[in-house]
Amino acid sequence: MKSLYLILSNPRYFAPAFVFSSLNIWFGTWAIYIPSVKDKLSIDKADLGIALFFMAFGVFTVFPVASKIIDKIGVGKTTWWGVIFCTITALMPLAAPSYELLCASLFLFGVANGITDIAMNTLVTELEKEDNVQFMSATHGFFSLGGVIAGLGSFLIPVIGHPVLHMGLIAVPVLLVNLFFRGQYVLKRSAPIEKEPFSLKLFKPLFFLGLIGFVSFASEGAVVDWSALYLKEVTLAPEHLFGAGFLAFSTTMTLGRFLGDGISERIGSVKILALGAIVAIMGYVGVLSGITLVAIMGFALTGLGFSVIVPELFRIGGKVKGVDSAQGIAFIAGTGYLGFLSGPVLLGFLAEEYSLTSSFWTLLACAALVLSVTTILKREGR
């Protein structure tokens, strides 16, 4: 909890942490309206999967150039412009009157999410190195807190009754808070480092971290995109509980990330990755029970398990010797988002061909894969 106190007591650290929250408030609010968008446009699960692919495509178009943009205009300015871009594009998918415009708007939303994600993680890495502090996990806790806020907003769906209005009521106050704190980071630039030429020795640790990132983000993306439909169609949950899986997942992920920095200091990076994978496996067993309340508890355990994995990957990736922090984070983010956004697409086709249950069995196997990769990292001495 030391890192949480650090953030809450110092605007220098709270400012980037709130950007993390903002990103998931926008994305989570979109996510809780996915069933409504699906029904409004009369599309099936496979069509929805393709639409989500366009968001993934938008993210990946920015990854190859993200580090160059950050180096050119500065990590602080890139973060701020990402906030503005996200605010605008978050409204577009919910307002799309056709399937084609839904795909186009999700592409732009993906571009905005991608550049903001890399910039804000690079910003935190630079602050950690400059100030000799650890608060990466806690900032990801603020990201999850944004999901909690968005999940709580699902209870307002019957009251507001309009997706675009709902997003607008959320997006404008979030933008104003970011505007107030932007001065804490907007002029920040990454510290120069002595880069080394590409070699397999440099790439090897990034490869294993990227593999863990891929399957971890795929699981997180699946919960965001498919948990509401899973509770609706598999466990036959009542309408007011459709968003409960995402809410439970986000709540425990928030709590776990606020504790993650301290746990990492005590047991080390590899052990915390393995511990997270074990808890996530237990969570998926609960989800696959098919019982509404047990499944919601399973989503909660899954969130707790993955809570400590992702920030640890970014922390390690941003500090690989001989690699620019923005490039290392871009690689982790790139492989991670490949899972986060394209994973649910593949799961959508799997759900359409077989069932949503088979999709979550696949995610259980992914969590087991994370656990097995941590044994390789342990042998490598990471």
Tell me what the structure shows.
With about 375 residues, the chain is mostly helical. The chain has one domain (about 1-190, about 200-380): Growth Hormone, Chain: A (Up-down Bundle), CATH 1.20.1250. The chain contains 17 helices and no strands. It has helices at about 1-10, 10-30, 35-40, 45-75, 75-90, 90-95, 100-130, 135-150, 155-160, 165-180, 200-235, 245-265, 270-285, 290-305, 310-315, 325-355, 355-380. Helix 12 (about 245-265) runs parallel beside helix 14 (about 290-305) and helix 15 runs antiparallel to helix 16. The longest helix has about 35 residues, at about 200-235. The model has no long low-confidence stretch (mean pLDDT about 85).
Break the fold down into its secondary structure elements and pairings:
Blueprint: H1 2-9, H2 11-32, H3 34-40, H4 45-73, H5 75-89, H6 92-95, H7 99-131, H8 136-152, H9 157-160, H10 163-181, H11 200-233, H12 244-267, H13 269-287, H14 292-307, H15 309-317, H16 325-353, H17 356-380
Helix pairs in contact: 1-2, 2-5, 2-7, 2-8, 2-10, 4-5, 4-7, 4-16, 5-7, 5-10, 7-16, 8-12, 8-15, 11-12, 11-14, 11-15, 11-16, 11-17, 12-13, 12-14, 13-14, 13-17, 15-16, 16-17
